[in-house]
Specification:
Blueprint: H1 3-15, H2 18-25, H3 29-43, E1 48-50, E2 55-57, H4 59-87, E3 90-97, H5 102-115, E4 118-125, H6 128-137, E5 142-146, E6 154-169, H7 182-185, E7 190-191, H8 199-208, H9 221-230, E8 236-239, E9 251-268, H10 274-285
Parallel strand pairs: 3-4, 3-5, 7-8
Antiparallel strand pairs: 1-2, 5-9, 6-8, 6-9
């Protein structure tokens, strides 16, 4: 059964005449009659009583008419939804993210909802490498990532920069200021996460702190902060911003504006689709974000 056959059936039923229905559909009468005949053969039903002057629906035709209208209505909704997806006004975006981005993401989603109410975003949390892999495979439509400047198989659209966070013993003189300088921190042993855990982060920190003094090992963030607070010798650690700083007594946190990392939206290689472009626009225009003009080449 074809939609065109149903369109012909509904037109004849509403016009109660093959000639008028053919004019409405802008086809010749013979073609219309062939469509109706084919539909009747497929259904095994006679849909119209025909006479020289009159065309009337049979009982079967009357029963099927609302179903045919509903089928045509559903097909029209499919077309309109598809057109909305193609235009970026409707659809679903599967966005890979992390808890640390929550505040900015929710503000961007509010901005997006105001301009594109038919466009939904489903947030998917995963580790960064898994987020990138999911964009490459098509499991995610886009993903927020930190520090990464080049990634095989995806385009990176820089969005904003975040200062890294330093954790210091509260009693240390460097904790007194709002933002300790990197030169001063160089004199204090650093508990740095091993490079294997996050090569890009490790390389960024060590490049910014030439001659840094290795401190006791970094384990987990919570355990490292606990050890830092209780350690007999002062040391410090540095980490990415998180959704909420962990409460640890005798430890203070200070932003390092001289040590920032880029946050980008990773998308499949090539020009962004209209829905992804709408998400990019919302992320860039939301208050507090710093947009960047072009994607990073692969």
């Amino acid at each position: 059964m074809e939609l065109r056959q149903l369109e012909c059936f509904v037109a004849v039923a509403e016009e109660l005449g093959f000639g008028r229905a053919a004019e409405r559909l802008r086809i010749v009468r013979a073609a219309l009659e062939r469509q109706i005949a084919a539909l009747e053969r497929e259904l095994g039903l006679r849909l119209f009583d025909r006479s020289i002057r009159h065309v009337r629906l049979t009982a079967a035709g009357e029963r099927l008419l609302p179903e045919a209208r509903a089928a045509l209505g559903a097909a029209d909704r499919v077309r309109r939804t598809a057109a909305g997806i193609a235009a970026g006004t409707e659809g679903l975006i599967r966005l890979g993210t992390a808890r640390a981005f929550a505040d900015r993401v929710y503000r961007a989603l509010d901005t997006l909802a105001a301009s594109r109410p038919g466009l939904r975003v489903r947030l998917e949390r995963a580790p960064q490498e898994a987020r990138l892999a999911a964009v490459r495979s098509g499991t995610f439509d886009a993903a927020l990532v930190r520090t990464v400047e080049h990634a095989e198989g995806v385009d990176l659209h820089p969005l904003w920069y975040e200062p890294l966070i330093a954790a210091l013993p509260a009693a240390h003189p460097l904790a007194a200021g709002e933002s300790p300088g990197l030169d001063a921190l160089l004199r204090l042993p650093l508990r740095l996460a091993p490079r294997a855990a996050n090569p890009a982060f490790h390389d960024l920190v060590t490049a910014a702190l030439p001659g840094w003094i290795p401190g006791p090992p970094f384990t987990t963030l919570h355990d490292t902060l606990t050890d830092l607070a209780a350690g007999p010798e002062p040391s410090w650690t540095v980490f990415h911003p998180v959704g909420g700083l962990p409460p640890v007594e005798r430890v203070v946190f200070r932003a390092l504006p001289d040590l920032t990392v880029p946050v980008s939206l990773a998308t499949p290689a090539g020009p962004p689709s209209p829905p992804i472009q709408a998400l990019l626009d919302a992320l860039c225009t939301t208050h507090g974000l710093r947009p960047a003009a072009v994607p990073t080449p692969r």
